[in-house]
Amino acid sequence: MEESIKPPALSTDGKAAASLKTTVNGPQTNGEISDWTPSSWTTKPIKQDVVYDDRKAVSKALAKLERSPPIVSPTEICKLKKSLEDVALGKAFLLQGGDCAELFDYCEASMIESKIKLLLQMSLVLIYGAHKPVVRIARMAGQFAKPRSNSMEQHNGKTIPAFRGDNINGYDPEERTPDPSRLVSAYFHSAATSNYIRVSLGSGIADLHSPLDWELGHVKDSGIKAKYERIVDSITESLRFMRTVGADSASSGLETVDLYTSHEGLLLEYEQSLTRRLKSPAAHRTRQAASETSKRILLPEREATISDDGAEWYNTSAHFIWIGDRTRALDGAHIEYFRGIANPIGVKVGPSMAAEELVALLDILNPKLETGKITLITRYGEHKISSLLPSHIHAVQHSRHNGKVIWQCDPMHGNTFSTAQGIKTRNFSSILSELSSALSIHRDHDSFLGGVHLELTGEAVTECVGGSEGLKDVDLSTNYTSYCDPRLNEKQALELAFLVAESLREG
Fold it and tell me: b/e for 137-152, b at 16 or more Cβ within 10 A?
């Protein structure tokens, strides 16, 4: 029988949340946090909340989401957790990338395909450099909402709400009032994108028997171009050798890859509505093993330690979600929500994070000390990383979380600036500089960089300056399409992968 739990009263800061219904399939006991529910975050102070004018419309939208099927499954989530455990142990490398902020218009076949192909090519280059498998996570199928420094902005002499993402309001100044119906639209666009990713992978888009487009005509420096061509030749020759010796059979894994989805878990009303208590594949396997053992030694069957009913709370909106640098307050709503879900999660770590705060945060989010559960996504800026990253590494190494976390570098967010014309951009050399520093600092401190986190697109945009294309400030207006932060285009992203691969190979 289902037991209904009345959600806690809303805090003053949580005024944006609707009165959300929470259903629990049985008691929460063994191995679970007894004082947590999907709605317990509403008792905490919240940052970056959204205030809706029509509470009745919010309740209607969230009720629709609660009735909708999951977008991802516990089996997929647990498979990713196992892969991320390998990353934390140094047995694999993590590549995470995609749009700064997705638009509903990006839910289109060719744009989805271009990002899948780009992440595949980048991962092949990184496999070449790291000599280990690459775990691929896309910033897709839900990366709509974006935190803002200011909730309001000036437009033609009027103060209007800032654009906060397609799942909240529209970019058009006339559509800036937060609209709860966009929450439902976000769900269906995410589900459609996830479905097309699965369809594309199942139809052979990642089949390595097919030729890959490694066009390098944009590389102007002949020395750099020759270096990239040698890497491409090596990858191509390796694939040709595998075909020749028959290692590319149906069981070899060359026909498809795993590609997981992710987004920042910013809008907690949405995340709660898609949080479900579902059977854990790990619990099922544990029970099976316990059953077989009990039969052999003639002892009564023992219960699994995940929970009495073998279920856990999963966020089913994506395989992986992360907490932003602006919403990671230890006593805040976002930390409260994230501490109770079984998904692997990320935490943005910026210049304002104190070393002791980082350890305290890990204590809250990973009390069971699961290896690979937490990915620390560092984003300092090229001029700050050398003074900040070492203390964070040292703090984790001297805590009980040593060897349990994944260190991932986000070289994008700390290197944003505006041109003289007021155009927001990033310099390729600054991105590469922070990433190179992260690699060397980890090596110098008996640690290792486990992955990269990039804002990129498979389209030929002109949003970041530099790189082998030689883009300059004057070129930005050629094809600047981002409504939020600037992204690497497909050539810049692939070039960055080449450079990281070279550094990994040398290391």
Answer: bbbbbbbbbbebeeee
